[in-house]
Amino acid sequence: MEILQNVHSYLAYVVLAVLIFAVFNALIGWLGKKEFTMEKDLRISLFALILSHIQLLIGLIVYFVSPNGLKAIQVLGMGGLNSAARLLALEHPLINIIAIVLITIGWSSHKKKLESKAKFKTITIFYGLGLLLILSQIPWAQWFN
Ligand code: HEM
Question: Where does the sequence pass through the membrane (predicted)?
């Protein structure tokens, strides 16, 4: 199952890049009073949504197969985890699930808005918050090893 850990690790670059792109695209559309188009803006936001959901699914599997996920808690106990281990086994999974819930809420509520400005604003806020949460829980030291 090591392959899934590698996929999760490499897909993270793509997910982050596309999310950052989607947030800036929405921010520029919002502040620049642009028209929200199906060809460009909807596709970028949908692409970011789908990629983060794929990363969520792979992350969930990794959580149950990796020695650094649930097993770490079972073997060492919650109190036995140092902060790096707790990040992988608890904070990163938990906060990232919340982040992806926010992104999903952003996606479905932008669809209910009629005006371009409201659509861009919704995407900017929800995807932006999700992105910040994800960035706050990346195991940077381990990732770049
Ligand atoms: C968009 C959301 C996510 C991003 C960008 C992300 C990114 C990453 C990165 C960069 C690593 C370090 C990989 C490495 O060591 O090379 C990692 C590890 C990990 N992630 Fe995620 N992740 C996300 C969501 C999730 C979710 C939702 C879960 C679980 C429910 C999860 C579970 C894990 C676990 C258990 C590890 C540790 C794997 C190990 O060391 O064996 N991730 N993640």
Answer: 12-32, 44-65, 85-108, 120-140
pTM over 0.90: yes
Domain boundaries, the chain: 2-143
Instruction: Write the pLDDT tens digit of every residue in 48-74.
Output: 999 999 999 999 999 999 999 999 999
Give the Cα separation of 137 and 108 in Å (integer): 25
Q: Which of 125, 145, 138 shows the shortest CA–CA distance to 16?
A: 138
Query: What residues does ligand 1 touch, defined as CB less than 6 Å away?
Result: 5, 8-9, 12, 15-16, 52, 55-56, 59-60, 62-63, 66, 68-69, 88, 92-93, 96-97, 134, 138-139, 142-143
Structure-block tokens of residue 30: 């919002």
Cα–ligand 1 centroid distance for 94 (angstroms): 11
Could you read off the pLDDT of 20-56 as tens digits, one per residue? 999 999 999 999 999 999 999 999 999 999 999 999 9
**52 Cα to the center of ligand 1, angstroms:** 12
